[in-house]
Amino acid sequence: MTHDARHHISDELIVSYAAGALSEAQCLAIASHATYCRQCRRRIEDAEALGGALLDALPMTPVPPPDVDALLARLEEGDAPPPERRDPPVLPTAFAGLVAPRPLQAFLANRSWSRLAPGIEQVVLGTQGPASARLMRFAPGIQLPAHGHRGLELTLVLTGSYHDVTGTYRPGDLAELDQRAHHQPVIGADQDCIALVVTEAPAIYDRLIYRLLQPFIGL
User: Fold this and answer.
1) Number of C-alpha atoms within 13 angstroms, CB side, residue 188?
2) Which of 65, 14, 62 is nearest to 39 (CA)?
3) Name one Pfam family in it (predicted).
């Protein structure tokens, strides 16, 4: 499922991901982007290898010798059963035609789209931890409300495109914005844009009407 992604994961997030320091939702976005992007897969592998090398350099803790009798008893019981084969999950009909990254597929089971606003639908993915993950579908050509951020926002495009002051994002591209960013995404006119959106906190909308609606939409 590799694409030529033009927007990649920052070094800081790569290191945090390899160290296991990110939330489940953030890990989902990064792992999903890596299915599109060879470059970021290699960077993740390098960071994990470096972390492993650093662990190997730490002083070793003495390990008690194995229980030989217990090992022999297990061998006498016969070979272990083969690992259970797991087929890839079948996506619900609501997502028919969507080529979802493998890390995302399990989160779509038993879920469907819900209308958030005219031209906007969402699926709340139910990840654990402080950050939230949603699959969003935007109608072609719509302009989203201008807003800033209270925390990190990750947006991975799956289909279609959008653009803002930071550039144009197409399938496989990952946008990484923090509290310093302010933007107003505009969806490409040719087709729906489906994106995985991960946020640490609700956005800061410019217009009062959106701030009043925020408790009901959760974004």
Assistant:
1) 16
2) 14
3) Cupin_7
**Cα 116 from Cα 72, distance rounded (Å):** 61
pLDDT tens digits for 20-42?
Answer: 999 999 999 999 999 999 999 99
pTM, rounded to two decimals:
0.81
End-to-end CA distance of the chain: 30
Do 138 and 162 touch, CB atoms closer than 8 A? yes
CATH of 109-217, one of 2.60.120.10, 1.10.3470.10, 2.30.30.40, 3.40.50.1820: 2.60.120.10
Please report, for the chain, how many H helices and E strands are present, in that order. 6, 12
Measured distance CA(188)–CA(87) in Å, rounded: 35
Q: What count of residues does the chain have?
A: 219
Residue 2 pLDDT level (bands cut at 50, 70, 90): low
d(CA 210, CA 208): 5
Strand 132-138 and strand 147-148: the pairing is unpaired
